[in-house]
Design brief:
about 425 residues, mainly beta, Tachylectin-2, Chain A, Jelly Rolls, 2 domains, eight-stranded antiparallel sheet, seven-stranded antiparallel sheet, 31 strands
């Protein structure tokens, strides 16, 4: 008996299949890193020994994909004597698709669905609100109804930019007499915007719309709100909720362009239109010390309303840094910094409405003044990022930098995020 570790099945998106005879199988895509080869080189299958907790037996490439290319994200199912292989193909962008194939034997050969792909937004016009549809799995619900959940993205209307990143949608599907799976609520292969789901005592209709999201954190607890995320390193390495009760203290670390140690806490943007606000107390002593409110995609794409120090102006100031694919020309120049020496508490706010991003500040609460110009929020989108695959969407949060290495801290009194109609 040949035993191997899980790393033998090189690639990503592994899935475990439980057969009705009690045997278990691991299926995973094969990644071929050789020059001139198809990097998406098929779907590998190997048996898993649950007692010994290892893979055993031969590795078989059971499906090499279709002409759609980029075959990945494998799932196996069994129904009416057929093994069904569901895969993501076409890449994760606007050619994304769901491929279905079947075989009487788990090791194949697999025949492809006669109308493949069974789900895709490719080729649809921009009125099709759910784009980039693919990478699916299926489940049987109540009343013997079947559903498919899949990845998708919603571009800002009249653009191809998806500022919300990858999202998840649901479709109703059915098995027909030919033992193939088809969409129910949408003609052809396009995902539907509305899906009818059986429920007691009457049928309801669900839409691909979220509940309005609000978050207000006054930092009175000794734990972080579940919506917050840190970047690359644990938040405990640069923050404290106990050193000054009722405040979140961040210690300044490296610049927003750093790929190592950053002091940044942020949450996902989940709506095309939202408002986010914070209040800070910060006494920088050098221009190398900054803190504020940030709209962030990655180290090369962000808009940053920050408090810092300007030696020429003679004190504490407020201004905006902006980076678009590492181009800093959108940033406010030094002459546009606003001196705020008299300010103890500084209120910062951002309003985003589709492509428009506006910053505001206040020395007295609710006495808001706009600062900077109207920025293009769509640059913080998957599709505006250069040089790599991107699908995380935009974030909004708070940050602190101290490039002098003196570990200067800032105290934030609260953070709010409210979605708007």
């Amino acid at each position: 008996m040949v035993r191997t570790c899980l790393s033998y099945l090189s690639g990503f998106d592994p899935s475990l299949f439980h057969d009705d005879d009690g045997r278990k199988w691991l299926v995973n895509m094969k990644w071929d890193n050789r020059i001139g080869k198809n990097r998406f080189a098929g779907h590998l299958l190997q048996e898993y020994d649950i007692k010994n907790k290892c893979l055993v037996g031969p590795v078989v490439n059971i499906f090499k994909g279709t002409e759609l290319g980029c075959s990945e994200g494998t799932h196996l199912y069994k129904r009416n004597g057929y093994y069904y292989l569901m895969a993501a193909e076409g890449g994760t962008s606007y050619s994304h698709a769901v491929t279905l194939a079947r075989s009487r034997s788990i090791t194949g050969p697999y025949e492809v669905h006669p109308q493949n792909p069974i789900l895709t937004s490719k080729g649809s016009d921009k009125d099709q609100f759910l784009q980039k549809s693919g990478h699916a799995s299926i489940i049987e619900g109540i009343n013997k109804e079947w559903f498919m959940v899949h990845l998708c993205a919603r571009p800002i209307p009249k653009t191809d930019r998806c500022i919300l990143g990858r999202e998840t949608a649901i479709q109703k599907v059915q098995w027909r007499e030919d033992d193939w799976l088809y969409l129910v609520d949408s003609p052809g292969k396009l995902p539907s915007w509305e899906v009818e789901i059986y429920s007691e005592p009457e049928s309801q209709c669900t839409k691909a719309i979220r509940v309005k999201t609000e978050q207000y954190d006054d930092f009175d607890n000794n734990f972080m709100d579940i919506n917050f995320q840190s970047l690359r390193i644990p938040a405990q390495m640069f923050m404290s909720l106990t050193e000054r009760p009722g405040f979140l203290r961040l210690y300044g670390k490296e610049s927003l362009g750093s790929k190592y140690t950053q002091s940044l806490i942020a949450r996902r943007q989940q709506s095309f239109s939202y408002c986010s606000e914070t209040c800070l107390q910060f006494e920088p002593k050098t221009s190398q010390q900054l803190a504020g409110l940030v709209c962030y995609y990655n180290t090369e794409n962000y808009y940053y309303l920050r408090v810092s120090y300007d030696e020429e102006l003679g004190g504490k100031c407020i201004g905006i840094l902006a980076s678009i694919n590492n181009d800093l020309s959108e940033a406010m120049i030094a002459d546009d910094n606003i001196l705020i020496n008299e300010a103890d508490r500084i209120y910062l706010k951002v309003e985003v409405h589709y492509c428009e991003l506006r910053f505001f500040y206040a020395i007295k609460k609710d006495d808001w003044k706009q600062i900077g110009k109207v920025y293009d929020a769509s640059t913080l989108s998957d599709d505006a990022i250069e040089g790599s695959s991107a699908f995380t969407g935009a974030f909004v949060g708070i940050a602190c930098q101290d490039l002098s290495g003196m570990n200067k801290h800032v105290d934030f009194d609260y953070f709010s995020y409210v979605e708007r109609e």
